[in-house]
Design a protein that fits this description.
2 domains, Tumour Suppressor Smad4, Rossmann fold, 297 residues, 13-stranded mixed sheet
Length: 297
């Protein structure tokens, strides 16, 4: 989308925007201190960079979803044209959503969408490689999302389960073999997969979806349902927790959409602690749809 269209919509709504290239913001940190609030126009990666850059500054973030999946915006109910979203903003109405925090061999990193191991993390490098070598360019985001979901389904048939120790809050640790283990702050992940129904990113909890090896058929059915109807709701069980401890024996650990650590064969298991940062990110959102309301602190 042309930058001029976005700026025109902002000016028409009475704002005086100043443009910053998000990739260059680390060299110009004052960009996060300009104006009444920050607007990020882009996909999930851009939203994540802006949100984490604003962390601790107390400045609200407004979203203009222009990416392929737009999982963050869709999970928050931010949809519509640029003009519709901008016209619905009210700077007096600020909501707050949670962030997550993951501590492990890589150090400590916050996240916005979720973290996990198994199917989603295995699909990321494969899809990236397909994009790198393919000469085909998708004209519509929906086509790319459909392709990505087909990759997930194919991997789900053959993926070997991962040995993982899982502890929620202060409960006893479970040792199991999982095809997919996701700790989510929002409802969606990957190619617009709604893994958690009615997830609330402002409730002070993280949602845990763990699919053990014996539920491969259930996972396949959930993915196929989503392929047939993108409005379908997940059938995978979820649990909620404020603190999650993992013992990782194998596999690659994904944070949002990046693999940040991979277990080495023969090494002692890695310990990972995941916690929630309640209300850490202030957001400026459009009015909720009349048929449903979104609870924000």
């Amino acid at each position: 989308m042309p930058r001029s269209r976005i700026e025109h919509a902002l000016v028409r709504a009475g704002y005086r925007p100043r443009y910053f290239n998000l990739r260059q913001v680390p060299r110009h940190p004052a960009a996060f201190d300009y104006g009444e609030f920050a607007v990020v126009a882009g996909g999930d990666g851009s939203v994540r960079r802006a949100a984490l850059g604003l962390r601790g500054r107390g400045r609200p973030l407004a979203l203009l979803p222009l990416g392929t999946a737009n999982n963050i915006a869709n999970s928050l109910g931010v949809t519509g044209s640029v003009e519709e979203i901008v016209a619905g903003w009210d700077p007096r109405r600020i909501g707050h959503i949670d962030l997550g925090l993951a501590k492990g061999p890589w150090g400590e990193q916050p996240f916005l969408e979720g973290v996990g191991l198994g199917l989603l993390g295995r699909a990321i490098p494969l899809i990236d490689e397909i994009d790198r070598v393919s000469s085909h360019a998708f004209s519509q985001p929906a086509d790319k999302l459909h392709r990505d979901l087909c990759v997930f389904i194919a991997l789900g048939h053959e993926a070997a389960p991962l040995k993982i120790g899982l502890q929620l809050n202060s409960a006893r640790r479970e040792l199991g073999h999982y095809l997919l283990l996701e700790v989510l702050n929002i409802a969606r992940s990957g190619p617009q997969l709604e893994l958690v129904a009615a997830a609330d990113p402002a409730d002070g909890y993280l949602d845990v979806v763990a699919v053990p090896a014996h539920q491969r058929a259930r996972l396949d059915h959930a993915l196929r349902q989503h392929l047939r109807d993108d409005a379908s709701r997940p059938i995978l069980p979820r649990r909620r927790a404020r603190r999650i401890r993992l013992r990782l024996y194998e596999g690659s650990f994904r944070l949002d959409d990046h693999i940040i650590w991979t277990a080495q064969a023969g090494r002692k298991p890695a310990l990972v602690e995941i916690s929630v940062l309640p209300g850490a990110l202030p957001l400026l959102l459009p009015p909720p749809p009349q048929k449903r309301s979104r609870k924000l602190r």
